[in-house]
């Protein structure tokens, strides 16, 4: 896989925008996520909401489920930031190094390629989406099947409990039934 494809695989769609996560950008720039975010925080006025935003817990969990990103050892203390193409372009002015500039060029090119792919969906993209959907369907079927197995097993156990209770009630009735004392009257003769 070439560098452009590697970067493209780190571009996600969130809130209707193509974005990259802070940890992926930090990895590409060769800095820690903390240092990248510190540089951004020192220059927050350069990153309005349409350049960068923090993921909600639901968005992050959905992203973890969809693409299988790892939470890392011990989990994240903070929800990640997502940078749009403009936010990534602004990072080059914040991370002022030759490496950052070269990486930024590659990232911008990857965003352009992703935009082209979205504008002209190819059959490859559809097959990738079909495969993802198929895997999700298989996963959901497996979960539902497991749940149905549990439900069937639980139903059988509940039925057995009801039968045992019925048997106990019948035995209790037999023990408490006494023969009636008194005269037997034939109501048909009266």
Q: Your description of this structure?
A:
With 190 residues, the protein is of the alpha+beta class. It has seven helices and four strands, in the order H-E-E-H-H-E-H-E-H-H-H. It has a four-stranded antiparallel beta sheet with strand order 1-2-4-3. Helix 5 runs antiparallel to helix 6 (98-119). The longest helix has 54 residues, at 123-176. The chain is elongated and about 115 Å long. The model has no long low-confidence stretch (mean pLDDT 77).
Give a nutshell description of this structure.
The chain is α+β, with helices and mostly antiparallel strands. It is built from 7 helices and 4 strands. Helix content is 64%, strand content 8%.
Any key phrases for this structure?
8% strand; 64% helix; alpha+beta; 190 residues; four-stranded antiparallel β-sheet
What structural class do you assign from the helix and strand content?
Answer: alpha+beta
Give the CA-based shape.
elongated
Number of strands: 4
- Could you give the order of the helices and strands? HEEHHEHEHHH
Query: How far is it from the N-terminal to the C-terminal residue, by CA?
Result: 103 Å
Helix content: 55-70%
Major beta sheet summary: 4 strands, antiparallel
Cα-atom Rg, whole angstroms?
A: 33 Å
Q: Look at the structure and give the mean pLDDT.
A: 77
Low-confidence stretches: none
Strand order of the largest sheet: 1-2-4-3
Strand content: 5-15%
- Helical stretch count? 7
């Amino acid at each position: 896989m070439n560098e452009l494809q590697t970067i493209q695989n780190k571009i996600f769609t969130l809130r209707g925008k193509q974005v990259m996560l802070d940890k992926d950008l930090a990895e590409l720039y060769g800095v820690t996520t903390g240092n990248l975010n510190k540089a951004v925080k020192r220059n927050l006025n350069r990153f309005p909401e349409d350049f960068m935003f923090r993921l909600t817990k639901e968005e992050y969990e959905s992203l973890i489920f969809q693409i299988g990103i790892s939470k890392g050892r011990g989990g994240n203390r903070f929800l990640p930031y997502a940078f749009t193409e403009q936010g990534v372009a602004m990072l080059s002015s914040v991370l002022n190094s030759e490496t950052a500039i070269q990486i930024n060029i590659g990232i911008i090119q990857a965003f352009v390629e992703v935009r082209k792919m979205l504008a002209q969906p190819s059959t490859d993209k559809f097959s990738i989406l079909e495969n993802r959907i198929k895997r999700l369907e298989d996963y959901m079927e497996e979960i539902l099947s497991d749940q149905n197995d549990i439900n069937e097993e639980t139903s059988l156990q509940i039925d057995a409990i009801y039968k045992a209770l019925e048997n106990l009630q019948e035995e209790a009735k037999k023990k408490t039934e006494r023969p009636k004392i008194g005269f037997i009257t034939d109501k048909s003769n009266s």
